[in-house]
Amino acid sequence: MGLPKLIAAARTLCYINGNLYGQVFSFNWSSSTPHREINGIDSPITVELAPTRGRCQGNIGLYRVTGDGGTEGVGATFPYSDLPRGQYFTLALVDRATGMYLFRANYCTGEQQQWQVAVKSLMTGSLSFKALTWNNEIVPSQEVAVPGAGGIVP
């Protein structure tokens, strides 16, 4: 029996800094690769579209678990006193059935975290991030070591 063609959330794992982060309940990202118009002298027509800065940003929905330290505990954000010494983190979404990474971002920074808890409910939160580099399974720019997913992900 073959694998389904559609990717299911239940088969998707999230790794932060190479460690499985099981408290994630949602993950979304957007990337943009804008282009700038290059115009010729004395020409009303644009002659070229030149790439500018690429951008990637996203949001991770999280459950808070007692004693996990939240986003600071996984190394995605830092306490206020450690902000000048903060480091980048990596993100990876991996299909557990195939071991293939669906999204990989390096050099991420946590931009904002938000937490809420309601009566008779679980504490949930979100982490907004930005990344300098990103890719998916189409552009395997590097090998990714993912524990528990069959070693090196192609």
Outline of the structure:
The protein is an all-beta fold and 154 residues long. The protein has a domain of 104 residues: Pnp Oxidase, Chain A (Roll), CATH 2.30.110.
Total beta strand runs: 11
Strand order of the largest sheet: 2-1-7-8-9-6-3
Number of helices: 1
Give the class from helix and strand content and strand pairing: mainly beta
Using the coordinates above, name the CATH class of the domain at 11-30 and 56-139.
Mainly Beta
First-last Cα distance: 22 Å
Helix amount, in percent? under 10%
User: Could you give the order of the helices and strands?
Assistant: EEEEEEHEEEEE
Nearest-angstrom radius of gyration? 19 Å
Largest sheet entry: 7 strands, antiparallel
Strand percentage lies at over 45%
What would you call the shape?
globular
At CATH level 2, the architecture of the domain at 11-30 and 56-139 is Roll
Mean pLDDT: 82
What secondary-structure arrangement, pairings included, does this model have?
Layout: E1 12-16, E2 19-20, E3 24-32, E4 35-39, E5 46-51, E6 55-63, H1 70-73, E7 89-95, E8 101-116, E9 124-135, E10 144-146, E11 151-153
Antiparallel strand pairs: 1-2, 1-7, 3-6, 4-5, 6-9, 7-8, 8-9, 10-11
